[in-house]
Design brief:
By secondary structure, the chain is α+β, with helices and mostly antiparallel strands. Helix content is 43%, strand content 17%.
């Protein structure tokens, strides 16, 4: 018989899911709660869904102390949610940087729109959260027409830093293994914020 994936129960909503679908937490040597978004830190883990609401419930109900069977130093719910969101954004950023080093990124609204008009080759388009409305609409329209996912993520400054360039309002990932990895991370980020799929029209994403 095939082995089933190990399961854990969310400390917030109490739903049971595959461990790989949940957000893991561990304790630092000082007994401080630490989010482990990559699920690689040593030590015993406690879990919530990838939703801010579940983390908030777990904090407010003191579920982490119960799970670890000790007094846990837990930051305020808003503070730990901000920390998790930042870690998840940086996961997206790290994949973009890797894709850039591998030559799988094109950037700049003109270059991306021209590539979209020609069709083929692009697996994902990312718009900066502070892109102008007019340019954002044009890129979104071309991406939708070509069946290319188009999401909002990071801002112009951060895109530029990751690519080693000036401000960039539009970044596209060429079809490659990086596309699905980035989509997975963006989805986790969006789910954490809203408990649902990300929307390219949502300026927070």
């Amino acid at each position: 018989m095939p082995r089933t994936a190990p399961q854990r129960t969310c400390l917030g909503c109490r739903e049971t899911r595959d461990k790989g679908e949940l957000l893991r937490f561990v304790l630092s040597p000082e007994g401080i709660l630490v989010p482990d978004v990559m699920a690689k830190l040593p030590g015993r883990g406690a879990y919530t869904c990838f939703r801010r609401s579940c983390v908030t419930k777990a904090v407010e109900r003191r579920q982490f102390s119960r799970a670890f069977k000790s007094e846990v130093a837990v930051p305020p719910a808003g503070e730990i949610a901000t920390q998790i969101a930042s870690l998840l954004r940086e996961r997206v950023a790290s994949y973009l940087a890797l894709a850039n080093k591998a030559g799988k990124i094109i950037s700049g609204s003109d270059m991306v729109m021209e590539r979209l008009r020609r069709g083929g080759g692009l697996g994902l388009v990312l718009l900066a959260s502070d892109i102008s409305g007019d340019i954002g609409e044009k890129v979104s329209y071309l991406a939708e027409r070509g069946g290319v996912p188009c999401l909002r993520m990071l801002d112009k400054d951060r895109f530029g830093e990751l690519l080693g360039k000036g401000l960039r309002s539009v970044v596209a990932v060429i079809e490659s293994g990086f596309v699905q990895s980035i989509l997975n991370e963006v989805k986790r980020y969006g789910n954490f914020l809203d408990g649902g799929a990300v929307d390219e029209q949502d300026p927070r994403i």
